[in-house]
Design a protein that fits this description.
2 helices, Alpha-Beta Plaits, about 20% helix, single chain, 4-stranded antiparallel beta sheet, two-stranded antiparallel ribbon, 6 strands, alpha+beta
């Protein structure tokens, strides 16, 4: 079963292809994505890599966590599930002046 990893502290110049290529040294990469800011189109400095199994994911964590990647020290750990954000006062709320 695939395991998703969080990769933080990425240089803004990192692409999904360069991330995938680097993590392929630890094993088979199912997918790699760099999270982009919707407004600016610029990298947010983090991403996710999905490794094909737990052993390869552990190898990737050992290989890259706290290590230099393209000039920056990155953080690599198992990704946590997305938690609900709760009510942020969206359009369904009525404002009274």
């Amino acid at each position: 079963m695939a395991k998703k990893l969080y990769v933080g502290g990425l240089p803004y110049s990192t692409t999904a292809d360069s991330l995938k290529g680097a993590f392929a040294q630890a094993g088979a990469v199912e997918s790699a994505v760099v999270i982009m800011d919707k407004m600016t189109g610029r990298s947010k400095g983090f991403g996710f890599v999905e490794m094909s199994n737990d052993n390869e994911a552990e190898a990737a964590i050992e290989m890259y966590n706290g290590k230099d990647f393209e000039g920056r020290t990155i953080t690599v750990n198992e990704a946590r599930p997305l938690e609900p954000r709760g009510d942020r006062g969206g359009s369904d709320q009525r404002r009274r002046f």
